[in-house]
Amino acid sequence: MTESSPLPPAATISAGAPPAAAVDRTAAVSPAPAPERLVSLDALRGFDMFWIVGAEGLVAALAHLGGSGPAHFAMTQLEHAPWQGFTFYDLIFPLFLFIVGVSIVLSMEKARREKGLAGVWPRIVKRSLLLFVLGIIYSGGVRDGWDQVRWLNVLQRIGIVYGITALLYCALRPRALLMVASAILVGYWALLTFVPIKDINLERTQIAALEKQTGLTARELYDRTTTTVRGGYEDGKNLAHHLDFEWLPGRKYDGLYDPEGIVSTIPSVATCLLGVFVGFFLRRQDLTPARKAKGLALVGVGLCLAGLLWGVQFPIVKRIWTSSFVLYAGGWSCLSLAAFYQIIEVWQVRRWAIPFIWLGMNPIAIYLVRKFMDFDALAARLVGGPIKDGLGAFGPLLVTLVGLALSLVFVWYLHRRRIFLRL
């Protein structure tokens, strides 16, 4: 998994519980309760995880077999867009945040109604902090010194976004939440469009060329730049990246700035709020499941069109999470949920989704286990060497399939034993 791929939030125990909202205050591992479940949401969460735990390698192995078929096209979609644009891989992280938003509504309504904000905010804050700390540990912790700590990464962003969104959900009515989401999207556009920045590009290759040419460090070059520009949306030359360079300590994924940086976390809250609005819609009792699926699809198409239109002026860029990206990714998230909801809740066709449900019910467990236990390396021990070589071009495919199978067996075992990891 790449550094900028989405990570699972805190473990969920039901389709209606947000990953971070499933944190138990007493136990690390415990049996799950038996609330009503939105199975399609579990399955979609698991589908998202599926691309993290091995599906990417499976597509690569199929492409390795040769030919110019669907697998080769799929490989082009399993890389992030270099800057502007959108690929399937760019959807994985925002889809997860979207699911978190849906889950907040489905799991927290009773607690919000009975306890109010004062009764639930300590648990929300605790869960957010736990996710943040877990993200630091996942990224290497303090192993290489304080200056090499990755303070903002995917898990940290999920913790921050979950905490802010859950608190907003508990404190505000839907109309006020809509105003907040709109203000975030427009305000972020205004920040990147009108706030002046120094006329210097911090992108790796460009700053390296300047350092070689002048003999100065990036910091010296930045400090000596006195001219300013506005409306920068270029890689390395925009407000988000410049503020990361100035204010974000520790190790940054892109050298001088980070794709999960400070300012770009703001619009990701709007992504989660889109999920909250969908949660409100799914909670309605006056609509049939078929009408809900249709409504999700229509909203998805509308958001995609809105994102494309805004993208003409404010480009769709995942690495700074532009407002147009929020709308476009939100549209595809709605369409994805509509498809899963139609098949699983309306048509009641569920058997195909069972492996996804296993993954979706234990995302934090499988993610952490794959970090500290390399299933692919274990698969190579089992079917690598002479077995792999004896199969020729099919050898890498076998190793990948075994690694993926080990991941699925692990989550199947947890599901069968009703073990659901909680923070």
Task: Count the E strands.
Answer: 4
Kindly report the spatial arrangement of strands forming the biggest sheet.
1-4
The share of residues in extended strands comes to under 5%
Measured distance between first and last alpha carbons: 22 Å
For the sheet with most strands, the description reads:
2 strands, antiparallel
Can you give the mean pLDDT? Answer: 88
Radius of gyration, rounded? 22 Å
- pLDDT < 50 stretches: 1-35
Number of helices: 16
Succession of helices and strands: EHHHHHEHHEHHHHHHHHHE
Describe the structure.
The protein has 423 residues and is an all-alpha fold. The chain has helices spanning 39-64, 70-77, 92-138, 154-171, 174-194, 204-214, 218-224, 239-247, 265-282, 289-311, 323-346, 354-361, 363-372, 375-383, 386-390, 395-416; strands at 29-30, 197-198, 228-229, 420-421. The strands form 2 sheets. A two-stranded antiparallel sheet has the order 1-4. α1 crosses α11, α1 runs antiparallel to α16 (395-416) and α4 (154-171) crosses α9. The chain starts with 28 loop residues before the first strand and ends with a strand. The model is unreliable at 1-35 (pLDDT under 50).
